[in-house]
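Practice record 12: protein with guanosine-5'-diphosphate.
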Amino acid sequence: MPESESAFAALQFLTSVGQPEQLPAESLPELAFAGRSNVGKSSAINALARRRRLAFFSRTPGRTQTINFFELGGRGRLVDLPGYGYARAPRSQREQWERLVGGYLAARRALVGVVVLMDARRPFMPLDAQLLDWLRPAQRRLLVLLSKADKLSRADRAAQLRSACAQLARRDPEARAMLFSSESGEGVAEARTLLEGWLRAAGEE
Ligand code: GDP
């Protein structure tokens, strides 16, 4: 698909939300991105949008606990969920994260699919598994991107993908897993095509 036709090429910041009451109206299908802090989520979003760095991804601490909404050229929205798994996060921050993200995932009707980034070297850590458990009842489409795949040898990449697919199949037979690297570009075009298809399907319903 030419770049001009890609919804991701049109990515544009919409709003940042810190409280469930502030969520924008559900006017377009949403794709949410989730993952442990530092897993490579911002880099993945930038790679999908073919940007080096979005101005919005500043590292100010206040931003770490917000849900950030981006428009995808009128075809949908990309929803960047706050990272989880800070080893030293205070309990109050963990509770705020659960209320905000748990509430969004449980109740958002516009949410058509979720992309969960997991480090290809150590996927399915306990908090990743907990997030997948939250997603299960809602039956949404799920894509697991095994990030930073460039850090693994070819043989290890293949082994990690096989193991991730097997673990995922036990939870959700429809879910997909792909090797992904913002650095080498592996999986970027494939993920983009899959996600554009989800948005198209949601738009046709
Ligand atoms: P986030 O906290 O999940 O948004 O993670 P970032 O996208 O900010 O990335 C965290 C760190 O991992 C940064 O130092 C990135 O340069 C690095 N990183 C992100 N993606 C990749 C990747 O595909 N390959 C490698 N080798 N490093 C990456």
